Amino acid sequence: MPARWSADSVLDLASDESSRRSATGLGRPAPWSGTGVAGDVVWGLCAGSGKNPYQTIVDLSGPAYKCSCPSRKFPCKHALGLLLNWANGSVPEESAPADFARAWLEDRRARAEKAEKPFAGTVPADSPLATDPGTVKDQAAAARRAQQRAQRVAGGLAELQSWLRDQVLVGLSATAASGPGHANGVAARMVDAQAPGVATALRELSAVPSSGDGWPGRLLSEYAQLHLLARAHERLDTLPPDLAATVRSRVGYPTSRKDVLTRPAVTDHWAVLGVRDLVDGAVPGRRVWLRGRDSGQWAMLLTFGVPGGPGGWQDPDTARLRPGTELHASLHYYPGQPPMRAAAGERHAQPAPVSRPDAAGGAAAVLAAYAAGLEQDPWLTVWPALLAGTPVAPAPGSGPSGGGGLRGTGWHLIDAAGAALPLAERESLWTLLAVSGGSPVTVAAEWHPDGLLPLTVWHGNRAVAL
Fold first, then answer.
1. Are residues 305 and 331 in the same domain?
2. Which site from 70, 196, 207, 420 is most exposed, i.e. has the minimal number of CB atoms within 10 Å?
3. Domain containing residue 188
4. Could you say which of 217, 251, 285 is where a domain stops?
């Protein structure tokens, strides 16, 4: 059975605040009967307003959900409530799934196999079509499409720079008066210009004016980053290859997995240190952080949800990875600097349990590594961290000052040298504090410009997901 998720991880899956509130009410044993967990499957019967209870099933490897309730939300409140019960230890372990859960699993497996059959064997392994991309696609036409896209992106970024100048000339007070979503219009234009990375950044900065004290400085910083990206795109042909690849990635040019797998591989025993579900975007994703035992290199695997696909993910094997395991595999890094995102190529063994990793260095090492990364990628906002420290809760009656950052007297992680890093405010920080018992613990986390987001803490050699 996989390690239990935290309540925060469960509630992050909710589609809206209403679902979170309803799920919290169902996150107790009272309305449930016949619950159980076997392997990656959790199931239960939840009493509702009708005569028959709702049959609720969750496949943790996806996650994927099934409930007999009429809700159109995905996942529904019953699936979330069942997961909350499992997270708090209220669901008993069983040797096999209940009949209704097993029938659903078998049906999903059959549909997945049926979906794969039309593609199996359509191209013989020895056919030129299987090895020569030039016979599949007209390379000249592909080059023309690439040139047309570059022209559309360049035109869109030129409009972006004009928009940025207008924002500064008109003044930030006008931005605040325009309310949320002030950048949504130009973000839509970036989608038309085939620059989805820029569009995402614009949609995110639309929330900055309502983010608390100091928002004008943060907004200007975001504007400056976008201006820098647009100017860098103008000079793509003269930039060093790795930096040019980084710029293209930030703008949103695609890089196919097939092309990535042709790049040199790094074969190692990769410890799975942290997993984070990304639920804010239009398509849910999962980010998995790895570190090589021999190479010491970090790697980030990223997979996205595919409704109706095998396991519900682009790459179900990646989605199933959990902290506290080790993967012997060959990874291929995407173009760009610093090398971080990777694709898993050949797997030499199934993931196996591994003991607690060594956390060398503290807060200073984390910040120094992030600074070195910023030298190579000025738009870097997420950096992996592994360190030992003691979590400290806010003093009674205190908390972070304002809503726009991690300042003041909020949560912190204090290392052996006495240096403190601010922690992102989450309910799972209480789990972190409970595991530590007031003593230093090993923590895997993501460092963001405004603080540290813990993902995993080790209790002895057991990894506890936060």
1. yes
2. 70
3. 139-251
4. 251
Higher-pLDDT residue of 124, 80: 80
Please check whether residues 147 and 208 belong to one and the same domain: yes
Split into its structural domains, the chain has a count of 4
Give the tens place of pLDDT for each residue, 336-354.
999 999 999 999 999 999 9
Do 445 and 454 contact (CB within 8 A), yes or no? yes
What span, in angstroms and rounded, lies between the C-alpha atoms of 1 and 156? 49
Going by their DSSP bridges, the two strands 298-304 and 341-347 should be labelled as parallel
What pLDDT is stored for residue 401 in this prediction? Answer: 41
- Return the ∠ at Cα 60 (arms to 54 and 66), rounded to 5°: 25
